[in-house]
Specification:
Elements: E1 4-7, H1 17-30, H2 37-43, H3 48-56, H4 65-83, H5 95-104, E2 108-111, H6 118-125, E3 133-134, H7 148-157, E4 164-168, H8 171-179, E5 183-187, E6 198-200
Parallel strand pairs: 1-2, 1-4, 2-3, 4-5, 5-6
Helix pairs in contact: 1-4, 3-4
The protein binds 1,6-di-O-phosphono-beta-D-glucopyranose and magnesium ion.
Length: about 210
Amino acid sequence: RYKAVIFDLDGVITDTARYHYLAWKRLAASQGVHFDEAFNEHLKGIDRMGSLDLILASAPRAYTPEEKLALADSKNAHYVELISTMSPADLLPGAVEALDACRAAGLKVGLASVSKNAFAVLDMLGIAGKFDYVVDAARIARGKPDPEIFLKAASELGVSPADCLGVEDAVAGVASIKSAGMTALGIGDPAVLAQADRVIAGLDHFALADY
Ligand code: B16
Ligand code: MG
């Protein structure tokens, strides 16, 4: 029924959310901003500057664009340090099997992550070769929930959005898939990902024939 499956990375294929959380928490603390797991949920799927803006919204002072860039760079340097020891052992259960199942079914396989570290993470996980197309987040103007990133993946794969299944763990990501006109498979809690067409707990429950 589909011609392509477009996967998100963080939270779907590997659990980098924990490392983003630790890096943002340290950054927030350095600026006197309270930061916890609940707030971190709102940042899932949101790009780096967008996440920083959400955190600094509760800071005691205003920031110049230059200061913001420096803070984003410092968060990223910490994040890159945290993920530097990632390996294929950090693949979430069922991830490789899901990618291979799509390929075996003759579908195109794409990656739509807003992370500028996505190429490096794919290399560390040893799965870069499993995608027909990986969106370069640096060339995307509008992050999730805007549909741009999923539409870009579909067009580069040569498939119309209606023939794509998008796979996402974040509320903003599911919104991006739906506004792109695709079917959304959520990964996580159905109560949280209410906009998804189907929700499964993880890729270890991925069954292409069901969607
Ligand atoms: P970076 P995804 C997103 O990746 C993460 O969910 C989000 O927490 C992060 O802020 C964003 O990537 C940007 O990452 O700072 O590495 O560019 O879920 O779209 O794969
Ligand atoms: Mg994600």
